[in-house]
Design goal:
Helix content is 43%, strand content 24%. By secondary structure, it is an alpha/beta fold. The protein folds into two domains: 180 residues, 3-Layer(aba) Sandwich (Rossmann fold), CATH 3.40.50.410; 37 residues, no CATH class. A six-stranded mixed β-sheet has the order 5-4-3-6-7-10, with helices on both faces. α1 runs parallel beside α8 and α5 runs parallel beside α6. The longest helix is centred in the N-terminal third of the chain and has 29 residues. It is elongated. The mean pLDDT is 89.
C-alpha cells in the first residue's frame, strides 16, 4: 500500500506530465517518433495525382483499369524506459533527487506515448537487472511505471549500463524506442551502446546535479560516494581544488558528448535544478528538423 507522501508525489507527476503533454508535447512526439513503416490497406482505382509507383500491375492487367495500392502508417510503437536506479541517483542538492527527475521525465514521455496509442514499459537496473515491466498501454499502467521508479528498492548500488542494454537485446526482438536515463557514472558500456543503437532507436538522457559540476567554497567537507561507500575529505575553500573538480567534471561531460555524437545517438542533458521541459522540446524540434 502506498504511503501518503508517495501517493502525493505520483499524483503531482501525473498532473504535471498530462499538462505538458496536452499543452506542448502531443504533436511533437507524434511527428518525431514514426511507426514501424507503412502497412498495406487496400487496392483502389487510380485517381489523378496518385503516385505511379504505387500502381498494382497485377490488378491493373486483370481488370483493364489502372489500380494503385494504398498504404497507411503502422503507427503503434513500443517504448521502453531504461532507468538507472544505482545509489548515485539518490542525490540532489535542490528540491529533488536525480531519481525523482528520472521519474518525472519518464512519466511525461510515457503519457506522450500512450496518448499516441503506443506501448510503454520499464527496465530498472543498477549493477544488475532489478525490475522489468513489459510494455503496455493505459494511464494506470503509466502510473505504475512512475510508482516503481520512485518506490522500488534495488538490491545493487553500482551501475552496469552494458548489462542493461544486453538484456534489452534479449527481450525486445523488434525495433523499439529506448530512453536510457542515467547519470552515466559507469565505464565499459561503449560496445553495448553501439550494438543497441543499431537495432533500436536509442535516446540517452543524462541526469546531473549542479554540485557534481562545480563546488561552492564551504571549507572542509566530507564527501561520500553512494555507490562505493568511500569517503573523502575535501578542502572546498581551495580555489585550486575547485578548479580541478570543475575541470574533471567538464572533461567527463565532453567525453560522454563525444561518445554519443560518434555513435549518432540523440542525447538530452538535464539537471535537477534546471527546466527539463525546455530541453525535451529542443530535442523534439531538432529531431523533427532532421
Amino acid at each position: 500500500m502506498l504511503n501518503k507522501e508517495l501517493a502525493h508525489r505520483i499524483r503531482e507527476i501525473q498532473i504535471k506530465a498530462r499538462k505538458s503533454v496536452t499543452d506542448v508535447l502531443a504533436g511533437e512526439y507524434h511527428s518525431v517518433f514514426k511507426g514501424r513503416g507503412m502497412d498495406f490497406d487496400e487496392v483502389r482505382e487510380y485517381q489523378p495525382g496518385d503516385d505511379i509507383r504505387t500502381i498494382d500491375w497485377n490488378v491493373t492487367a486483370r481488370t483493364g483499369q489502372p489500380h494503385v495500392k494504398r498504404y497507411v502508417e503502422e503507427r503503434e510503437l513500443t517504448v521502453l524506459f531504461l532507468v538507472d536506479l544505482s545509489a548515485s541517483g539518490k542525490f540532489g542538492s535542490g528540491q529533488r533527487l536525480k531519481n525523482d527527475l528520472a521519474a518525472e521525465i519518464a512519466g511525461l514521455l510515457a503519457f506522450s506515448a500512450i496518448t499516441n496509442n503506443d506501448k510503454a514499459g520499464l527496465l530498472c537496473f543498477t549493477d544488475r537487472i532489478e525490475h522489468y515491466i513489459p510494455p503496455r498501454k493505459g494511464s494506470s499502467h503509466v502510473l505504475r511505471l512512475i510508482r516503481d521508479i520512485l518506490h522500488f528498492q534495488p538490491q545493487g548500488r553500482g551501475t552496469d549500463i552494458g548489462q542493461a542494454l544486453d538484456y534489452v537485446g534479449k527481450i525486445l526482438p523488434r525495433r523499439a524506442v529506448l530512453f536510457l536515463l542515467s547519470d552515466f557514472r559507469d565505464s565499459g558500456f561503449h560496445k553495448a551502446l553501439k550494438v543497441t543503437s543499431r537495432r533500436h532507436d536509442l535516446i540517452a538522457i543524462s541526469i546531473a546535479d549542479s554540485l557534481e559540476t562545480a563546488l561552492p567554497s564551504a571549507g572542509l567537507v566530507r564527501f561520500r560516494d553512494n555507490e562505493t561507500g568511500q569517503t573523502h575529505l575535501v578542502d572546498t575553500a581551495s580555489r585550486t581544488v575547485r578548479r580541478r573538480y570543475e575541470a574533471h567534471a567538464n572533461q567527463a561531460q565532453q567525453e560522454l558528448d563525444s561518445l554519443f555524437k560518434r555513435l549518432a545517438i540523440d542525447h538530452i542533458p538535464v539537471r535537477t535544478d534546471h527546466d527539463y521541459l525546455s530541453q525535451l522540446i529542443r530535442f523534439f524540434k531538432a529531431r523533427e528538423g532532421r
